[in-house]
Amino acid sequence: MVTTGDAAESGDPSEDRRPADEEAQFSALLEDSAEDLYEHAPCGYLSTLLDGQIAKVNRTLLDWLGYERGDLVGRKRFSELLTVGGRLYHETHFAPLLRMQGEISGIALELKAADGSRLPVMVTSTVKTDNSGRPLLIRTTLFDARDRRAYETELLRARQEADQERDRLKLLNTTLQKSLLPPALANVPGLDVAAYYHIASVEEVGGDFYDLFPLAAGTWGLFLGDVCGKGAAAAAVTSLARYTLRAAAVYDPDPAAVLANLNTVLNHEYNGTDPRFCTVIFGLLTPDADRGGFRITLASGGHPPALLMRADGTADYLPTPGGQLIGVLSEADIATITVHLAPGDTLLLHTDGLTEAHTDADTQGRYGDEALLAFGRTLAPTTASATVGAVRELLDTFGTGVDDDTAVLAVHVPRAPKT
Question: How far apart are CA 259 and CA 249, in angstroms?
Fold first, then answer.
């Protein structure tokens, strides 16, 4: 009977064999010749004379290109293995930089195989020198970049497709945006009109809108509004608001009644989990036969007040108190104000993209109502086209500070020509 002590003393033969096998495998690795490592490395190696003539090349590179050693060594220069474009780059950039720096790495080139196919590679070259620093030869390492090139090609294709899709989306958004604005404003005898729509980003459709249109004989309706949000959902609300306003004005042109009608429609259509609302200012224009010029009655649903620039050079906002956001509540509290537009007067309606624009001086600050009022006072007296032109220039000065679409609509009563 063998005791535990005897087993420990004699040892298990398999236990002795295992370390011996591992040592043999390790010794075999150490004995692997440097020449074999060179020949069958996972990358290509070649050495050239200073003029580029190939002096040595490993089996890996030969297999990649489909050449035998005698086809290249002493017969070809490294540049002759390159494509036409690669050869030109090698002569004008690669080789001069290598001579100046002694080393150049990570250069993407294409090799021309024996069968005419192309092999993308990443190239690193180093100049070997003697003890005195005199250059002797050039050693070059080449890594197969086919997978990387395929990835880059696919990435480029995906980017091109994304750019094309973005261009199509921009075109669609631009087309949709135009469809939400009137192709032309109505021609009102005795009144000059100008409008402008500033698009903050072509990536999304904005929700600003305006219009000027005839009603009953001798009256015209106008409105300017801003729907909450952007994109397709906002565009749908914009379209509904525009056509509702026009239809309601034909039925009953009283501005308060028009906005109350729109409020009912929006509140009914969007009273679920995704409520939608807008701000609107609606006006009814009527020629004033007694005093000349026009009489305008304005109603506001939570919209910024209109700016009136008088013929005498003064300017101020027209108060429209009591107005609330359209579509939020089932019953809208809407007040109206009636003013006389005398010859030389100009009325400006605008959305809040103008007053909420970031200024260049302080990206945290906004342009604000007071700045716009001061701006209007410097313009007065003015005309509709001059006002809109000045606003366009102002918006341009903000650059990317305008992060919301802006719509402006100006009406001007021209002075009678001097006789």
Answer: 9
Q: DSSP assignment of 343-356, as one string?
A: TT-EEEEE-HHHHT
- Of the candidates 316, 103, 354, the one whose C-alpha atom is nearest the C-alpha of residue 208 is 354
Give CA separation, 92 vs 19, 53, 98, 99, 207, in Å.
Answer: 58, 18, 11, 12, 56
- What amino acid is encoded at 254 in this protein? D
Helix, strand, or coil (residue 265): helix
Question: Coil, helix or strand for 397?
Answer: helix
Q: pLDDT tens for residues 186-231?
A: 899 999 999 999 888 766 777 789 999 999 888 999 999 998 887 7
Q: How far apart are CA 268 and CA 174, in angstroms?
A: 29
If phi > 0 it is left, if psi is from -120 to 50 it is alpha, else beta; for residue 114 that is alpha
Task: Express each pLDDT in 267-311 by its tens digit.
Answer: 888 876 677 888 999 999 999 988 889 999 999 998 999 999 999
Average pLDDT value over all residues in the chain: 86
Q: What is the arrangement of strands in the sheet containing 44-48, beginning at the earlier edge strand?
A: 54-57, 44-48, 135-144, 118-129, 103-112
Does residue 207 contact residue 238 with C-beta atoms inside 8 Å? yes
* pLDDT over threshold 80, residue 358: yes
Beta-sheet strand order (sheet of 336-341): 208-214, 220-227, 278-287, 294-301, 336-341
Please report where in the chains the tokens 């021309």 appear, as a residue: 112
How far is the C-alpha of 292 from the C-alpha of 296, rounded, in Å? 13
Q: Is the pTM of this model over 0.90?
A: no
For residue 84, give the amino acid letter: V
Write out the two tokens for 242.
Answer: 């525009």
Q: For residue 392, what are the contacts with CB-CB under 8 A and spacing of at least 6?
A: 196, 198
Please give the pLDDT value at position 361.
Answer: 54
For residue 225, what are the β-bridge partners? Answer: 209, 280
Shortest CA distance to 208 belongs to which of 356, 93, 72?
Answer: 356
CA distances (Å), origin 79, targets 28, 61, 62, 119: 38, 15, 15, 14
Confidence of residue 7 (pLDDT cuts 50, 70, 90): very low
